[in-house]
Design a protein that fits this description.
11 helices; flat; mainly alpha; disordered C terminus
Length: 338
Amino acid sequence: MTTTDSPQPTATPKGPVSRATARRRRSGDTERGFSRVFRWIATGAGSLILATLAAVALFLLLRAWPAITASDEEISSAVGRYPEGTSLLEFIGPLIFGTLLAAVLALALATPVAMGIGLFISHYAPRRLAQVLGYLVDLLAAIPSVVYGLWGFLVLAPVVKPIWFWLGDNLGWFPLFAGDVSATGKSLATVSVVLAVMILPIITAVSREVFLQTPKLHEEAALALGATRWEMIRTAVLPFGRSGVISAAMLGLGRALGETMAVLMIISPGFLIYSLQILAGAQHQTIAAYIALDFAEATGLAVNALIATGLALFLITMAVNMIARAIVARRKEFSGAN
């Protein structure tokens, strides 16, 4: 009975190595070295973002802490515009309300228009026209906010004032259009329109790129089954781009929440926390505009109170981004992209 020996592994021959083999070995070592360096750079960049965010949060918290721990009498005496006994929450509350109301109204106005423009550029317009429109939409994002503020104050407010009066006369029963209409047009409604124009290029640009990424096989399959152009968009394009549109809307919302100069130049400020009368003047104010308006003349505890409002805005923007990420992660598996 003969036994078959298992094959033994061939030993690597020792001796001089050819130049090509040595070159390949050196190249592999170099690539591994570059990979390690790139990994360190990427890790450092990510850590730098987290460190910067933590530093900003820590700075705001430390500078706002004297106002957070101050008594109501100290806050009211430092701010000056509030009666005695006003707490920090009563000081920040109207600003938070005005900021959220203006941003949400701007988002409600801009998102449908931005989606329509994005769909027109990506699926309806001829190529040359789409390129021109895409360039013009991107150009809107380069206009400074001061220019938007001047346009809103000098041009838009006189134009929309008759519209606001018509809404107040005919739809005054609705809470948003109730109350006395501002005679100058400087109201939260005008601010919301300007903010909608400002965030329009952000939402449009992202939505356009998302719609262009829709797989052609999905679109061709819908058309092959007899769907019209709109039915193809409704069943293939919109489900695929839902998460991207949500992300675009949240980016626009973040821009609207932090806008300063345009709001400061247009709005007639007020501090009524639960006022929904967007057509009336002296009703609302936003956090960013209030800080820009009062920071130069603030001293002592008033500075800490303003920084506390900045901390509130920081927390609001973080919450908005976290909610957006959660929505996108939840909707992604149902978007048709998988």
